Amino acid sequence: MDIVYLLVPLSVVLVFLIVAVFWWSVQSGQFDDLERHGESVLDDDEAGARKAPGRDDA
Amino acid sequence: MPRHPPRGRHVLQAALSAGYAAIDDPEVQAAFTRPADAGTPGRGKAFVAIDGMYCAACAVKIEAQIAQVPGARIDVNVAAGNAVVDWEASRAPLSAVFAAIEAAGYRPYPAGDHAQRTAADRGRRQELWRLGVAGLCMMQVMMYAWPGYVSTDGDLAPDIARLLQWASWMMSLPVVLFSAVPFYRNAWRDLRRGRVSMDLPVAIAVVVTFAASSWAMASGQGEVWFDSLTMFVFFLLGGRWLEAGARRRAVRDLERITRRLPDTVERLSGWPAPQARAERIASHRVAAGDVVRIAVGEAFPGDGTVLAGGSSADEAVLTGESRPVPKGIGDAVVAGSFNLTGPVVVRVDRTGADSRFGQVLALMEQAAAGKPRIAEIADRYARWFLLGVLLLAAVAGFGWHLAGEPRALWIAVSVLIVTCPCALSLAAPIASVTAVGRLARQGVLVSHPQALEALAQATDAVFDKTGTLTRDVPTLYAVEPLRDGVDPLRALALAAALEAGSRHPLARSIAEAARNQRLDTEVASTVARLDAVRETAGEGVSATLDGVRWRLASAALDGPVDAAPGMPADLRADAPSGAVVWLSDAEGPAAAFRFDDGLRPDAADTVAALHRDGLRTALLSGDHEAAVSTVAARAGVTRHVSRATPDGKLAEVERLQAQGARVLAVGDGINDGPLLSRADVSVAMGAGAPIAQGRADLVLLSDRLADVAFARGLAKRTLRVTQQNLAWAALYNAACVPLALAGLLPPWAAGLGMAASSLAVVLNALRLAR
Fold first, then answer.
1. pLDDT tens, B476-514?
2. Alpha carbon of A48: minimum distance to chain B alpha carbons (Å)
3. Which residue in A4, A23, A47 is closest to B160 by CB distance?
4. Distance in Å, alpha carbon of A53 to nearest chain B alpha carbon
5. Which of B156, B411, B449, B589 could form a disulfide with B151 if both were Cys (CB 3.0 to 4.6 A apart)?
6. Do B61 and A15 lie within an 8 Å CB cutoff?
């Protein structure tokens, strides 16, 4: 049972880590436009494939 | 409309020549850009609104195009129709970025109000984060609480139980110290102003629960409720999050209208000289008298007159009419409407608050500031209700404590949360905001929310005649040759030529009919051959053509020809259905031009719809009996009063009101101000009426009479939805308060119930937007 003394505090730390990741994802605007990225799956335009390298160049 | 506008080299050229170079002016940039976060010189962020984006693929195209501009990056938000551009001036100027967006086939505009919009975005992110933190912590606290619930006595070692309590406490901290902050802040803000708000019970509940649970944990006596605490904070935040989204949807129709004016506009100095200089200036700097060039897809910055070019305009913002309106030289354009098919040069006549768009905005702001009467009452009582809630919770907690109940505090907290009258205070305003937005989309402006209540309760409708049931200008519907050898089209052309210089309404409709028959060139050549044109008030127009003296005059004033032989019998009478104009020469009448009474095509349907709705109808007019009774009969209006003076109309409305009727008056908003202000609710046809100064409760910008029936239907539905909402909110409180007092409702269920009841109210109101 002693392991619980390690695991419970660890779970607290883990949740705080998850909260931090969530903070990053919200602040970087990932939840601002929920429609567009879903629709982009349906986009068979070549431009979609070129987009990522294009942005890295910038 | 094609989903993606064509792209091509010429677009880029056009963009550069259209004066995007002005975008690089630091003074212009100040309005919509800011330096990049790192503070690198020459690097900045620009906020750009992009027109023409319909789907995700559009964003991909724009991003691919921008990738070719050195040092530039773009972040496109399709839903909002805007983008953030990150650019480096030393490698490529901002105008190159704009040109690239243009080359992708879309129109970029500097977004001046972007700062405001990003503030709203930041607010929404913050809300989402608070909700997310509460959700994650709540789930973990549940995990720690679980062993306590499932273990039988003695199963859970005391030290483990304490460990789990400490872990729960740790997890509750972010919820209490961060997620719940809006509740404290709002409660405190209102307390300082001497008001009690709905956030106060929630804030007290959070603080009391947390303090008591912490004390119980530290002292090792009593129960902890960290699980209930985190759960109800999560449910309340979740409810508000969804509710805020729904409300935003409700006001979107209104916002779409207020965000219509362009941020910049291309001014031509020295027009019409060929070397006219074009410069792009902020649209608020445009003054009356300026000449501006409006490209395809741009909005007009002010009311004005087309000087060159031809196009069509989308005036849906002002009329609810989605069909494009053709615009030629000399036609008037209105601020906020979109130029659709060709570039035009426009002289601006009125800007800002003077323009029709400005008046519409002023009216809408006025409406937004008002509250439905029922909401004012609810607000007045909410304060006492809230104080009652606090008292009730205190009494319940104390009572249960005296009765030896260990869950006394838990019960008090449940009472605090469950009785929060959020749903009650939302019930009326949300319905009225949604309905006002829906009507605005139809081209019907509501000047204050009480108007909807009054409209729903109206029992009698009184109509004015001219400009209301009938159009201002009668339509020419027949040209009848009155002797052999007269060609109707030739006669029409001759009549149009005779009337070319006249501003009489009948002359205007003759000219319109000639235009519709494509007689323009013939009319023009005839005008050139006319001699000795004379227009005498009351006697019509006469002129000499090829040695023959022709006369065009209305029947009633043209006595001598009335008796001429060969005239159809029904034309001799004082033709009740509309005016008749005669074309005659020395030999007598050659042709008769018949005009209808200008009854609106939707008049009969509207009156019928109002009858079905249980309204009594009446027509009040100053016109003579024959004209009024004909219009009344054709429109289906039950009762009519002819030769009514303005005072007589007023007296008629007062007589109806004395009999207990609630009167809806429909007028043209110009000559019937007193009538409109005396009625319980008034509707003005908006074609020519001054909007903001008018006394009408509703303005039909659409100029469609049928919208009266539509507005009445929506008003009744709004009243019904409001009543449903109020009933639901009252029922909810009536059912939940006793449950909470009896200790049958744990705090988490109370939080869930409250969030669900508010959400139900909002969703019910959103039905009105369809």
1. 777 888 888 888 888 888 888 888 777 666 777 888 888
2. 6
3. A4
4. 9
5. B156
6. no
Of the two residues B690 and B671, the one the predictor is more confident about is B671
Q: Is the pLDDT of residue B657 over 70?
A: yes
Q: Residues 359..418 of B with a Cβ closer than 8 Å to A: which? A: none
Residues of B with Cβ-Cβ distance to A6 under 8 angstroms: none
- The residues near B218 (Cβ < 8 Å, ≥ 6 apart) are none
Active site residue B464: yes
- Integer CA distances (angstroms), B634 to B574, B684, B685, in order: 18, 21, 20
- A30, B153, B175 from B228: Cα distances, Å: 30, 22, 12
C-beta separation of B718 from B700 below 8 A: no
Give the tokens for residue B673.
């101000």
- Which residues in B lie closer than 8 A to residue A49 (C-beta atoms)? none
**What CA–CA distance (Å, rounded) separates B639 from B103?**
62
Per-residue confidence (pLDDT) for residue B753, from 0 to 100: 84
The mean of the pLDDT values for chain B is 78
How would you classify the pairing of strands B264-269 and B338-339? unpaired
In eight-state DSSP terms, residue B108 is E
pLDDT in tens, A11-57: 999 999 999 999 999 888 788 766 666 766 776 654 444 444 433 33
How far apart are the C-alpha atoms of B4 and B52, rounded to whole Å?
A: 8
Model ipTM over 0.85: no
How many C-beta neighbours within 10 Å does residue B448 have? 20
Strand duo B639-641 + B616-620: pairing? parallel
Kindly state the tokens that stand for B631: 């219009």
What integer pLDDT is reported at residue B712 of this predicted model? 94
Residue-wise pLDDT for B102-120, tens only, equals: 777 777 776 655 555 566 6
Whole-number pLDDT of residue B170: 93
Instruction: Give every CB contact of residue A4 below 8 A, 6+ residues apart in sequence.
Output: B160, B163
Q: Is the peptide bond before B272 cis (omega within 30 degrees of 0)?
A: yes
- Helices B488-498, B520-529: inter-axial angle, 10-degree rounding: 60
pTM, rounded to two decimals: 0.64
If DSSP codes are grouped into helix, strand and coil, which group holds residue B63? helix
Report whether pLDDT(B357) > 50: yes
Buried b (16+ CB within 10 A) or exposed e, B322-345: eebbebeeebebbbbbbbbbebbb
* Side-chain half-sphere CA neighbours of B66 within 13 A: 31
**B398, B408 in Cβ contact below 8 A?**
yes
Do the Cβ atoms of B167 and A5 come within 8 Å? no
- The model's pLDDT over B274-309, given as tens digits with 9 standing for 90+, comes to 767 777 777 777 888 888 888 777 788 888 899 888
When scoring B125, B143, B159 by the number of chain A Cβ atoms within 10 A, the one with the most, hence best to mutate, is: B125
Spatial CA neighbour of B167 closest among B200, B203, B142, B192: B142
Do A8 and B136 count as a contact with CB atoms less than 8 A apart?
no
Please name which of B495, B505, B477, B663 lies closest in space to residue B577, comparing C-alpha atoms. B477
Answer whether B119 touches A (CB < 8 Å). Answer: no
DSSP 8-state assignment for residue B299: B
Interface test with A, best of B63, B164, B234 (most A CBs within 10 A): B63
* Confidence at residue B669, expressed as pLDDT on a 0 to 100 scale: 65
Residue B499 in 3-state DSSP?
coil
The answer to whether B263 and B111 have CB atoms below 8 angstroms apart is: yes
Picking from B696, B650, B655, the residue whose alpha carbon sits closest to that of residue B675 is B650
Q: What is the pLDDT of residue B119?
A: 60
List residues of chain A with CB under 8 Å from any CB of chain B. Answer: 1, 4-5, 8-9, 11-12, 15-16, 18-19, 22-23, 26-27, 29, 31-33, 35-37, 39-40, 42-43, 45, 47-48, 50-51, 54-55, 57-58
Amino acid A50: pLDDT: 42
